[in-house]
């Protein structure tokens, strides 16, 4: 270059260059760095000597030049980069990576230099470039005509340069011999991170995002644990992206899933963070030294692929410097000091207050719309979509896979096919071949391999490559996802996982121990630690459950290992034991049956019935059905009961299993009762006759009495009241002779109802009074308090409100307290009549509305009192008027059964009312021994004010 420098003026193109990472390169090469620096200068000067560019400043590894022509400046930069890349450097590690930046602006030189902001803008453009990259401003790109042969400019968009308020559009020079792939320009907006770019929207999890964000800000190591497909990675990336500005040295994402050897974990992290390997020094030492002086967040994903190696690296990084924080995702925790383990919950399947849809449904809606070409699901599919997310337990991966199935299925079809969950979700997926496109994980693994090779590490074997491939495929199907965890289990933990698949819901520790017949703590702890079983603490002790997709996988493994028969038979035995325990107190003695004790067992009992009807013992299934008899009827599930019984009959026919006649008689009897409750009267009579024949064959007098006691029901349903009354009397007399009167209690109830219907109130009251001690001695019946209910109906017919109130509220309290919801509806109707007769018509209408709404939900038949309720409602409508009655009746229809019962309990007792018979001049009531009441002269009653005992009694009723 000429010693007399001619500085261009007017439109001047300024060029800045320097070596990227020159300090680290100098430290690495030591005394060999100076020859590299001189050779770098020589190459640039030789290149520039052929141009008319003016060298204004050379300092260290930097050049500052000015060109009168933008095209010539770009040509010079291209030539220089090619010369640098093709030069034969003594050591490949010593090759300098030079970044170059150009900007064109109007400038006039003065005293051999430029005092213009255009110079500073050019320097900022160069600072935004990476080693081997050439960037230029929009003004340079506009004036750079013609471009060098084969070259072009790529628009990188608008960027804010440091120190400038406006935005500058940057372009990258692309040509043969130049690198093409570079990170985002290092501008003021280019915050340092490599977080994966998501192609789908992030849905829901507002609470989880806030909670995890706070944990990361407060703690240096946070491990997000959860089952495969729970959304750990997606949530971690989402939260980390919101913290990029808090870490000046970057937020860096490293996927451990593709690392095939524990020794390569540190290499994988170094490949992302950027420190150069140093010959003769462990990479972990280099990595720790590099991170020690920086403030950064490292996101380590899928650490369960190499848990021990990850734990070592994390421990060293955190000990090496206080500015490093680690957010890890794994299916199990590390157990490191200071580690905060945050277990990710499934997506909520129920909507939060103030929201119309849950997070799980919102995700399914979003992904379904994408799968259907942007067309959202129809509103008619809403209920089925909710069924789908409930079956999938809110597991995000399962929901994503389900949405893909909705390309070919309706929501209803998908929901119906989820009994074969894995087969449905994984349909159309073949993971035997590598997925199309390597993606981010594959590119990162290439980097890891190159870094490892530089230190003499052997390249991954074909077996290791297979592991890498399975890592990238692990979220393509539910089976691949769960297999990823299952293959890490020991024999005991794997067996426990398989056997737990027989349970439909959560179980406690005692149940798990009962299932295995050994202490399950060790294998259960493994499953909880690996997020394959969820531990849910409660005041009474923890329960354990699997998400349904994991249960489906475990059930498939159970079949493959040949253990299904033994495990499911064991589960049926447990179900029988649990149902039996529901009838016993803590001391092991029979107690009044509460159907609330059966409610939590419903899912397990259905699972046990399903196995009994398809692969197990039909006899065991019939025993379970017998224990569920009252629960089915009181929950409005008589139709379900009949279906189970039909399936069990089919199983008997299929296997030829021998069933004792007594057990068949009991099954036919309860079938008859369920058919009547379901309105199938012909079926009711048919099975009643079958039950009688089987009971006579069995020779069991008590059983025969129970069967015959139910014979009146189909006769009543068919309107044969006289015949039904005759049958009841015969059964009662016959049972008394054989001293099995307790087994004929149903006939007593039926006869009392028939006597009430034809107005024989005195006989009905006497019959019921005698039945009270019999009912009290039978734990299965006494919770219903049917005697009190029927005595209340007798009192209503007599217009004796005091006795009616007492009997009905006692019956209602017992029925609600023990879970007899179907019978409680009748009692609420009866209390409504008592209110109508007692001058409370609005309350009566509300109670009628509530009882009808509950009865409709339970799908129950109206029974023998139906016409009576209708007549009383008609009278009430006439008294109130249509508008007032309908308004009150509608209000009642909005009440749940518990709210309706509370309204009934709040009705004031007639004894406490101002116009009570106790305070009248004439007439009062004297209780009868059988529990009803009759008028007695006023002289026999001493009026008294309401005292303390009355207040206490009233409080008890309320």
Automatic annotation (TrEMBL):
<protein>
    <submittedName>
        <fullName>Predicted ATPase</fullName>
    </submittedName>
</protein>
<dbReference type="Pfam" id="PF00211">
    <property type="entry name" value="Guanylate_cyc"/>
</dbReference>
<dbReference type="GO" id="GO:0009190">
    <property type="term" value="P:cyclic nucleotide biosynthetic process"/>
</dbReference>
<dbReference type="InterPro" id="IPR001054">
    <property type="entry name" value="A/G_cyclase"/>
</dbReference>
<dbReference type="GO" id="GO:0004016">
    <property type="term" value="F:adenylate cyclase activity"/>
</dbReference>
<dbReference type="InterPro" id="IPR011990">
    <property type="entry name" value="TPR-like_helical_dom_sf"/>
</dbReference>
<dbReference type="GO" id="GO:0035556">
    <property type="term" value="P:intracellular signal transduction"/>
</dbReference>
<feature type="compositionally biased region" description="Basic and acidic residues">
    <location>
        <begin position="947"/>
        <end position="958"/>
    </location>
</feature>
<dbReference type="InterPro" id="IPR027417">
    <property type="entry name" value="P-loop_NTPase"/>
</dbReference>
<dbReference type="InterPro" id="IPR058852">
    <property type="entry name" value="HTH_77"/>
</dbReference>
<dbReference type="InterPro" id="IPR029787">
    <property type="entry name" value="Nucleotide_cyclase"/>
</dbReference>
<feature type="region of interest" description="Disordered">
    <location>
        <begin position="923"/>
        <end position="958"/>
    </location>
</feature>
<dbReference type="Pfam" id="PF25872">
    <property type="entry name" value="HTH_77"/>
</dbReference>
<feature type="domain" description="Guanylate cyclase">
    <location>
        <begin position="13"/>
        <end position="126"/>
    </location>
</feature>
